[in-house]
Amino acid sequence: MDSNIIITVGRQIGSGGSAIAQLLATKFDAKLYDREILNLAARESGFCEEFFEENDERKGFFKSLQQFHFPLFGRNNIYHNDFSQENLYLFQCDAIRKAAAKSSCVFVGRTADYVLRDMANVVNVFVTASMDSRVAEIARRRNLSTEKAQKYISEGESSRASYYNYYTGKRWGHSESYDLCIDSSKLGLEATADFIAEYVRQAVGRGQTTASHE
């Protein structure tokens, strides 16, 4: 497998998807891009990273735009740039494409599966888990009651799905949007990462073999 390997990881909240992505990056000696992509997009655009953080996998950012002071725009000015939520998304897309072109990468969320849909050697994975395990994980991680953890998951995933569906025209979390969907609560994080890694090796290897015979 001589070409870059690109893995995109969509994930339910509390499923361990981000941790699994980190394990995959190690296995493939790949760069991991989770929130790091926001910094790259900020540098490419000249806009302050705070704007990308506020827009991160959620719609409705501009409803709260007034809370920011203009100096946060860095060297750009809202009155002299075509500034919009959609343009922030486009800057982020450009950053994802540039990163994927340079080396093997693992991207977490941020519609990377859609952004890189025309690239070779891309495997799109969605990590899910049982609701009980996700609630328990979020309650532990954020020191919340079971009820508040459930609310946190519900609201967060509603925002994430709205963002993904709006920009991709696909459905977040539905199997037709991904190459592999896997329940991490069945195997645990390490074994789930091993399973995905083997799938990626087989999928990418077969793709290269097919191409060599064309």
Cα(first) to Cα(last) distance is: 17 Å
Give the tally of β-strands: 5
Order of helices and strands: EHEHHHEHEHHEHH
What order do the strands of the largest sheet run in, or round the barrel if closed? 2-3-1-4-5
Low-confidence stretches: 61-81, 209-214
Largest sheet: 5 strands, parallel
Count of alpha and pi helical runs: 9
* Helix percentage range: 40-55%
Taken as a percent bin, the fraction of beta residues is 5-15%
Report on this structure.
This protein is α/β, with parallel strands linked by helices and 214 residues long. The chain has helices at 17-27, 36-45, 49-55, 85-102, 112-115, 131-142, 146-168, 184-187, 189-212; strands at residues 6-11, 31-33, 105-108, 122-128, 180-183. α1 (17-27) packs across α9 and α6 packs across α7. Mean pLDDT is 82; it is low at 61-81 and 209-214.
Give the helices and strands, then pairings:
Blueprint: E1 6-11, H1 17-27, E2 31-33, H2 36-45, H3 49-55, H4 85-102, E3 105-108, H5 112-115, E4 122-128, H6 131-142, H7 146-168, E5 180-183, H8 184-187, H9 189-212
Parallel strand pairs: 1-3, 1-4, 2-3, 4-5
Helix pairs in contact: 1-9, 2-3, 2-4, 6-7
Features:
disordered C terminus, 5-stranded parallel beta sheet, 214 residues, 9 helices, 11% strand, alpha/beta, globular
Would you summarize the structure shown here?
The chain has 9 helices and 5 strands.
